[in-house]
């Protein structure tokens, strides 16, 4: 008798594309990454990464291929040793209070958004983030695919904020926000900025963003010289906060959910038309463009030795140094005759560039 054709094919993991063991072709079958997403572990792409780390098992065996089919009614699917079950997808709108964190993990033990949903008994996570010091509308769900689409700039779901700032920004300053300001991450740009009232020596403005960078609104107003005193998100796409009290949450209505999905589907088919349409905004500023960061301009041909660049920008000024009597002479072919000069370094302390044939030796300086 001969041994098995492939002795390594002992069933120590599930890697073959198709169905997992004991899983027939039934209406209750799911692609593994889709099932994990429905169980609230994240988007399908995030779940694929979890599978590749070996933290997901099916019937006790580690899984290598995220594309297998599983039947959670007949098979045991576990993540870090905890059994997962298909959950009913839920969608909530929370009026997040100040001081509550959007992260699901906080070693310091501070209050998190998911702590406000303790009685729901499902694995939830917020769509995007609101700063700890910010408040307002936050969508919370266990639908990883929808959450990933809502947070992605490609789908252009606009966020509307009511912002209170110290002082009264001029129209010129607000136009700066519309035109865009460059930061380390790229160009930050608002879709719209308009006055919404005043209180004492502060102004209220309504700001619309196409995407959300870390503390974007606060950093934009700091750049134009106005401190943000309060920040509240009042709308996320077609979803409005309305008169919902701080700390309260409600389920999305069927109409609200259908409207969100309709916008996602429409924007998926139509690519963004520049940063105002919610593009990534991460392109680096072009030299000389409006809003580009100021700094020392490199001369053309930088990166090459100045004497090889052959441009006026690379060698903007040349000073002719009188050659001492004991310095080497240059022949017609450009070669040296004689020994090294006894004078040592020149007054500048820099080495001189190689002279052209038949010309006197000159010192080249870069002033930039």
List keywords for this structure.
single chain, 368 residues, alpha+beta, Structural Genomics Hypothetical 15.5 Kd Protein In mrcA-pckA Intergenic Region, Chain A, Pseudouridine synthase, nine-stranded mixed β-sheet, 17% helix, elongated, disordered N terminus, disordered C terminus
How does this model look, in words?
- This protein has 368 residues and is of the alpha+beta class.
- Among the domains are: 30-83, Structural Genomics Hypothetical 15.5 Kd Protein In mrcA-pckA Intergenic Region, Chain A; 88-283, Pseudouridine synthase, CATH 3.30.2350.10.
- It has seven helices and 21 strands.
- The chain has helices at residues 32-38, 44-52, 144-151, 171-179, 216-223, 254-269, 306-309, and strands at residues 30-31, 56-58, 61-62, 69-70, 77-79, 82-83, 91-96, 125-126, 135-141, 159-166, 181-183, 186-188, 190-199, 202-209, 228-236, 239-240, 249-251, 317-319, 329-330, 336-337, 363-365.
- Strands 7, 8, 9, 10, 13, 14, 15, 16 and 17 form a nine-stranded mixed beta sheet that branches. Strands 3-2-5-6 form a four-stranded antiparallel beta sheet. Strands 1-4 form a two-stranded antiparallel sheet.
Summarize the structure.
Residues 1-11, 287-297 have a biased composition (Basic residues). The chain has helices at 32-38, 44-52, 144-151, 171-179, 216-223, 254-269, 306-309; strands spanning 30-31, 56-58, 61-62, 69-70, 77-79, 82-83, 91-96, 125-126, 135-141, 159-166, 181-183, 186-188, 190-199, 202-209, 228-236, 239-240, 249-251, 317-319, 329-330, 336-337, 363-365.
Helices and strands in order, then pairings?
Elements: E1 30-31, H1 32-38, H2 44-52, E2 56-58, E3 61-62, E4 69-70, E5 77-79, E6 82-83, E7 91-96, E8 125-126, E9 135-141, H3 144-151, E10 159-166, H4 171-179, E11 181-183, E12 186-188, E13 190-199, E14 202-209, H5 216-223, E15 228-236, E16 239-240, E17 249-251, H6 254-269, H7 306-309, E18 317-319, E19 329-330, E20 336-337, E21 363-365
Parallel strand pairs: 9-15
Antiparallel strand pairs: 1-4, 2-3, 2-5, 5-6, 7-9, 7-17, 8-9, 10-14, 10-15, 11-12, 13-14, 15-16, 18-21, 19-20
């Amino acid at each position: 008798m001969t041994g098995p054709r492939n002795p390594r094919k002992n069933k120590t993991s599930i890697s073959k594309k198709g169905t997992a063991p004991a899983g027939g072709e039934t209406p209750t079958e799911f692609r593994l990454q889709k099932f994990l997403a429905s169980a609230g572990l994240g988007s399908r792409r995030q779940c694929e990464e979890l599978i590749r780390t070996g933290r997901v098992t099916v019937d006790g065996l580690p899984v290598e291929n995220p594309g297998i089919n599983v039947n959670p009614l007949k098979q045991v699917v576990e993540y870090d040793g905890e059994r997962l079950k298909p959950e009913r997808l839920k969608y909530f709108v929370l009026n997040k209070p100040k001081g509550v964190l959007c992260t699901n993990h906080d070693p310091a033990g501070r209050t998190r958004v998911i702590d406000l949903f303790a009685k729901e008994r499902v694995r939830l996570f917020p769509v995007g983030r609101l700063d700890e010091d910010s408040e307002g509308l936050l969508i919370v769900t266990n639908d990883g695919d929808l959450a990933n689409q809502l947070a992605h700039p490609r789908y252009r779901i606009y966020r509307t904020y009511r912002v209170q700032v110290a002082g009264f920004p001029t129209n010129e300053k607000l136009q700066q926000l519309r035109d865009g300001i460059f930061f380390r991450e790229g160009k930050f740009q608002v879709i719209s900025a308009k006055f919404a009232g005043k209180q004492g020596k502060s102004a209220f403005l309504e700001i619309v963003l196409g995407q959300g960078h870390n503390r974007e609104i606060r950093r934009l107003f700091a750049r134009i010289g106005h401190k943000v005193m309060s920040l509240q998100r009042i709308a996320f796409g077609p979803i409005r906060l309305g008169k919902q009290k701080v700390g309260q949450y409600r389920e999305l209505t069927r109409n609200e959910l259908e409207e969100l999905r309709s916008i996602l589907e429409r924007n998926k088919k139509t690519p963004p038309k520049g940063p105002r349409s919610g593009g990534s905004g991460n392109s680096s500023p072009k030299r000389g463009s409006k809003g580009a960061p100021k700094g020392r301009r490199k001369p053309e041909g930088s990166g090459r030795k100045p004497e090889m660049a052959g441009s006026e920008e690379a060698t903007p000024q040349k000073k002719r140094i009188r050659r001492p009597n004991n310095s080497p002479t240059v022949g017609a072919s450009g070669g040296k005759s004689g020994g090294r000069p006894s004078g040592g370094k020149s007054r500048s302390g820099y080495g001189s560039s190689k002279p052209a044939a038949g010309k006197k030796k000159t010192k080249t300086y870069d002033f930039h």
